[in-house]
Automatic annotation (TrEMBL):
Location of the active site: H10, E88
Subunit structure: Homodimer.
SUPFAM superfamilies in alphabetical order: Phosphoglycerate mutase-like (SSF53254)
GO biological process: gluconeogenesis; glycolytic process
Catalysis: reaction(s): (2R)-2-phosphoglycerate = (2R)-3-phosphoglycerate
Organism expressing this protein natively: Methylobacterium gnaphalii
Annotated residues for binding of substrate: 9-16, 22-23, 61, 88-91, 99, 115-116, 159-160
The protein's name in its UniProt record: 2,3-bisphosphoglycerate-dependent phosphoglycerate mutase
EC numbers for this chain: 5.4.2.11
InterPro entries: His_Pase_superF_clade-1, His_PPase_superfam, PG/BPGM_mutase_AS, Phosphogly_mut1
Matches recorded under HAMAP family: PGAM_GpmA
Pathway field: Carbohydrate degradation; glycolysis; pyruvate from D-glyceraldehyde 3-phosphate: step 3/5
UniProt entry tagged with the keyword Signal: no
Site residues (Transition state stabilizer), renumbered to this chain: H158
C-alpha cells in the first residue's frame, strides 16, 4: 500500500521578498512565488505522483500555492481542506516589521531567539513549541489516519507549521530543529511505513530547471 505524504511550503510571498515578518498576515505570492508553485507541481507530475486529498492553511499564499500545484498536475478537482491549524506561526508584535529593523530595535541576539529558539515566543505571538502544539494534534487526528489508510495527501502550508511536522517525521530534537530552513516552493516527499515512521524521503532540487 502506498502511504504518500507531500509537504510543500508556499511559494515566495510579497513579504518574503521585502524581508518582513509575516505570520498570520496575508500577503500574496510574487511572480517568482507563482512560478515556484508551478515548478513544484510539474515536478511532482513528472515523478508520477497523484493525490487523493489536499490540506492547506487559512492563509491565501498557501491556498494559492496548493491550487497552482494541483493545476499543474491536472488535479484541480480533488478535495482541499483549509484549516487554521496549519497557519504559519503567529509572530505577534513582529508581524509586518522588517527583520533588519527588528534587529536594530531589539538586538540581533533577541531577534534570533524569537526566530530560532524552540520555546521563546515573540511579544504577543507564538513560539515554535506553541506552533507544534497546534499543528501536531491536527496531523495526528486528521492527516495521518488518511495517509495510513492509503490516501495520497498533499499539505501546502508554511515554513514553521511544516517545521513542526518535519521535526516529528525526521526525528529531530528541539535543538536541531532550530537550524532547519524549509525553502519556498520545494516539495518534501515522504513515504510512510504502516507504523507512521518514514520509509523514504525525497525532495525537489531547488536548482532544477
Amino acid at each position: 500500500m502506498e502511504r504518500l505524504l507531500v509537504l510543500a511550503r508556499h511559494g515566495q510571498s510579497e513579504w518574503n521578498l521585502k524581508n518582513l515578518f509575516t505570520g498570520w498576515r496575508d500577503p500574496g505570492l510574487t511572480e517568482k512565488g507563482v512560478e515556484e508553485a508551478r515548478i513544484a507541481g510539474r515536478w511532482l507530475k513528472e515523478q508520477g505522483y497523484e493525490f487523493d486529498l489536499a490540506y492547506t492553511s487559512n492563509l491565501g499564499r498557501a491556498q494559492r500555492t496548493c491550487a497552482l500545484m494541483l493545476e499543474e498536475m491536472g488535479q484541480t478537482g480533488i478535495e482541499t481542506i483549509r484549516t487554521e491549524a496549519l497557519n504559519e506561526r503567529d509572530y505577534g508584535d513582529l508581524s509586518g516589521l522588517n527583520k533588519d529593523d527588528a534587529r536594530q530595535r531589539w538586538g540581533n541576539e533577541q531577534v534570533r531567539l524569537w526566530r530560532r529558539s524552540y520555546d521563546v515566543p515573540p511579544p504577543g505571538g507564538e513560539s515554535l513549541k506553541d506552533t507544534v502544539a497546534r499543528v501536531l494534534p491536527f496531523y495526528i487526528q486528521a492527516i495521518l489516519p488518511k495517509v495510513l489508510a492509503g490516501k495520497r495527501v498533499l499539505v501546502a502550508a508554511h515554513g514553521n507549521s511544516l517545521r513542526a511536522l518535519v521535526m516529528v517525521l525526521d526525528g529531530m530534537t528541539t535543538q536541531t530543529i532550530a537550524g532547519l530552513e524549509i525553502a519556498t516552493g520545494v516539495p518534501l516527499v515522504y513515504h510512510l511505513k504502516a507504523d507512521a515512521t518514514v520509509e523514504a524521503k525525497t525532495s525537489l532540487d531547488k536548482d532544477i530547471d
